[in-house]
């Protein structure tokens, strides 16, 4: 898939012509015509429609033992034979490293749907969020623990040898950073990466004039490039120069597995995903790109629903990449 070129903002509407009607209606929940309120209204964040996990999906909460303690996990699976070539996925929610949970749409909804649509074993990681005591590399270490737990489980069960890493927003950063650490250590690499609207660079690349014009009409509280660069990212890394695994878009990307990169069209952090996709291609990594039209950052958090069909389409793109990932060579 390729990312199509974008039309210019529409002066007559004071906003981007492709902003999904669902979000146009939800923006009315803000005070004033697109003016910042300082907080996001609860009605704006409510799901796009009623959603329940598919009935066939089995959901379990458990923990993985790591060198720094237990890491909470939530697994999603569907009944089926223990043999065969079913994939497995370690998945991380977003939240700028400082927020998020296993109950968010981009965790619970995405993981349940991916398990149902592909037959995959999906593991959602409740990695440690940044506090005064928790900084890089502790969240990344938790992902590493989940990765090793899944490899051990699939190896003992004689189940999938196709095992992938993925995530949304900050979770996408953690996914590719984990892959880079595995590569550099000579460990078992993932067979693919699924990266949804991630933040991969610091400082984040600026939007082009067309995208900047679109963003200018939206409530400032929704724009997170500046706050991420100067706030959440620095809380994650601390005051010292940021390590390369915290800003994976600045790393050598050669040797990474096939990667699906999803961009949200109207997203202040979108240039980071678009730049990473180009960098991966330049490094010889097979890349699939998908542009979620009319979507704001984090659109997977609204759960699949009839009022926001793009969530369902985006999950289908992730499912296709998960189901179609080829097996990688496993180092001896």
What do you see in this structure?
This protein is an alpha/beta fold and 332 residues long. The chain has one domain (21-324): Alpha/Beta hydrolase fold, catalytic domain (Rossmann fold, 3-Layer(aba) Sandwich). It has helices at residues 21-26, 42-45, 105-118, 138-157, 170-185, 209-216, 225-237, 270-282, 309-324, and strands spanning 58-66, 69-77, 88-92, 121-125, 163-168, 193-196, 259-266, 287-296. The chain has an eight-stranded mixed beta sheet with strand order 1-2-4-3-5-6-7-8, sandwiched between helices.
Q: Total number of helical segments? A: 9
Q: Can you write the helix and strand succession as a string?
A: HHEEEHEHEHEHHEHEH
- Count the beta strands: 8
Instruction: Report the CATH C-level class.
Output: Alpha Beta
Shape: globular
For this structure, the CATH topology is: Rossmann fold
What would CATH call the architecture? 3-Layer(aba) Sandwich
pLDDT < 50 runs, ≥5 residues: 1-14, 33-37, 328-332
Cross-sheet strand order for the largest sheet = 1-2-4-3-5-6-7-8
**Name of the CATH homologous superfamily:** Alpha/Beta hydrolase fold, catalytic domain
Radius of gyration: 19 Å
Overall pLDDT: 88
* Percent strand: 15-25%
Condensed summary:
The chain is of the alpha/beta class and 332 residues long. It is built from nine helices and eight strands. It has one domain (21-324): Alpha/Beta hydrolase fold, catalytic domain (Rossmann fold, 3-Layer(aba) Sandwich), CATH 3.40.50.1820.
Give the topology.
Layout: H1 21-26, H2 42-45, E1 58-66, E2 69-77, E3 88-92, H3 105-118, E4 121-125, H4 138-157, E5 163-168, H5 170-185, E6 193-196, H6 209-216, H7 225-237, E7 259-266, H8 270-282, E8 287-296, H9 309-324
């Amino acid at each position: 898939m390729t990312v199509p070129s974008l039309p210019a903002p529409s002066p007559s509407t004071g906003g981007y012509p492709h902003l999904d009607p669902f979000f146009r209606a939800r923006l009315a929940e803000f005070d004033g015509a697109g003016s910042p309120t300082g907080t996001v209204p609860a009605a704006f964040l409510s799901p796009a429609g009623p959603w329940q996990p598919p009935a066939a999906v089995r959901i379990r909460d458990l923990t993985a033992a790591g060198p720094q303690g237990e890491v909470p996990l939530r697994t999603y699976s569907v009944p089926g034979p223990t043999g065969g070539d079913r994939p497995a996925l370690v998945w991380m929610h977003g939240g700028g490293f400082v927020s998020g949970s296993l109950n968010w749409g981009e965790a619970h909804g995405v993981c349940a749907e991916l398990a149902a649509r592909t037959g995959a074993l999906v593991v959602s990681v409740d990695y440690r969020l940044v506090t005064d005591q928790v900084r890089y590399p502790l969240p990344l270490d938790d992902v590493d623990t989940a990765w090793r737990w899944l490899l051990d489980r699939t190896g003992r069960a004689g189940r999938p040898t196709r095992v992938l890493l993925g995530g949304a927003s900050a979770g996408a950063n953690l996914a590719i950073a984990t892959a880079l650490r595995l590569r550099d250590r000579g460990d078992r690499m993932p067979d693919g990466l699924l990266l949804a609207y991630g933040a991969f660079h610091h400082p984040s690349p600026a939007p082009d004039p067309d995208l900047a014009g679109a963003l200018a009409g939206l409530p400032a509280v929704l724009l997170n490039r500046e706050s991420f660069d100067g706030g959440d990212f620095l809380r994650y890394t601390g005051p010292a120069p940021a390590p390369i695994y915290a800003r994976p878009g600045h790393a050598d990307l050669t040797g990474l597995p096939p990667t699906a990169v999803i961009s949200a069209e109207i997203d202040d952090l979108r240039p980071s995903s678009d730049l990473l996709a180009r960098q991966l291609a330049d490094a010889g990594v097979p890349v699939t790109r998908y542009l979620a039209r009319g979507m704001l950052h984090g659109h997977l958090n609204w759960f699949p629903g009839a009022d926001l069909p793009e969530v369902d389409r985006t999950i289908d793109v992730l499912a296709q990449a998960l189901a179609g990932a080829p097996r990688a060579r496993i180092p001896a």
